[in-house]
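Give me the 3D structure for MFS transporter.
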Amino acid sequence: MEINKERGGLAYWKQIIILMCSGWVTIWIYRAALSPVYPQINESLGGNISDTALGSIASFYFFGYVIMQIPAGFLVDKIGKKTVLLPGFVVFALAALLISQASSISMIYTGSFLAGIGCGSFYGSAYSLTSQNIPKEKKSFSTAIVNSGSAVGSGFGMILSSFIVIQMNMPWQTMMYLSAFLIVCMTIAFALVIRSNKEDVAFLESQAAAEEETTDQPKEKVSLSTLFSLRMLFTYVLYFATCYAYYMTVTWLPNFLGTERGFQGVAIGFSSSLVAFASIPGALFFSRLADKYMHKKVTFIVILEILAALMLLVTVQATNSTFLMIALILYGFLGKLAVEPIIISWLGENAPKVGVGTTLGVFNFFGMMSSVIAPTLTGSISDATGSKVMGFYIAIILLIGGTFLFLTVNSKKTAK
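Predicted structure for MFS transporter (416 residues):
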C-alpha cells in the first residue's frame, strides 16, 4: 500500500478528490458558458439562427459525451485512467479553441461534438480513481464533494459568461478562451498528480491480494430479464425524467430569464446559478438523511421528485421575480443533484448482486440520453410557439409520470 500513501504532504486519495472535483468544475464552466450568450452567438453568425439550431449546440456536445461512455470505460480498464484522460482533455481543449474560431453554426456543432468526445474520457476515469483510492468509510461524503464540482462549475460558468459577455460587452469567444486555458491547466494537473499505469497496476494487484482471502464469489453476467425487469425499467425512466428536467433547465434557463422574464446582464447568470449552488447543500443533506433512514429511500425519492416538479411549475408561473428566484433555489436544493445519490444508492441495493456495474451503465445511458433530446426539443418548441414555457411543462409532466411509475412498481413490491 506504499504507493497510496502521502505525496507532497497530502494523501493521494485526498489529491484525487481535489483533482476530480476541479475536473468537474472545469467541464461545467465550459458546459454552462454558451447558453447565457445564445443571442450574442446568433448575432455574430448573422442573426438568422433559430432556437432549435442554438439548442442543438448542447445536444451535439451531449451526443459526443454519451457515445464515449462505453468505449472510454473499456479503455480505462484496458490501458489505464491516465492514458485515457490526458488525450481526452487535449481534444477537449482543442474543441473549445475550434468553437472560439467558428464562423458558422456547423463549425460550432463540430467543436461541441468534439468537446463531448473529449469530456467523455472523464467520467470513467474519475469514477475508477475515486472507487479504487478513497477509503470505504469516507467514500460517500468524498464522492459528494467530487460531484459538487459540477454544481460549482455550472454556477460560475453562468455568472462569468453573463458578466464578461453581457455585462462587459466582451466577445462571446472570450469564454471559450477561458475554458481552453482551464482545460490545459487541468491536463497538466492530471499529468503531474495521477500515478502512472505501472504504479496503478501495482496498487490494484496489492488490493486484489488483500481481498482474495475474503472474497470467493463467482463472476456471473446479469441477464436481460433482470436488467430490464419492470422495476429496473421504471427506475431508468425516472432517471431519464430527472435528467431531462435538469439539462433542459441548465441549457435554456438563462435564455428564458433574459427573453421572457426581463432579466438583464449579470442578473441572468446569477439567477441561473442559484440552481447549481443550492444543489450542493441539498445533495449533502438528503444523502446523509437517506443513509440514516435507509428503509425510507423510495419515500425520499418520490417526495424530492414531486417537490422538484412543483418548483419548476412555480418557476414558469411566477410573475414576481422574488418568487421565481425562490423557486429556482428550491429546485436546485430538491432537484437532480439532491435526489441522484439516493437513486443510485437505492439502485445498488436493489439491482442484481452480480452485474451492478452493467445496471449502472444502462442507468447512466438512459439519463444522459435526455441531455441529447432536451435542448433541441425545447428549442424547437420555442421556434414553433415563441416561448420556452411548454418545454418546462414537458419536463414537469415527465417528472410526475416517471415518479408515479417508480412509486407504483415499488408499492407493489412492498405490498408483496
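The chain has a mean pLDDT of 83. Let me know if you want a second pass.
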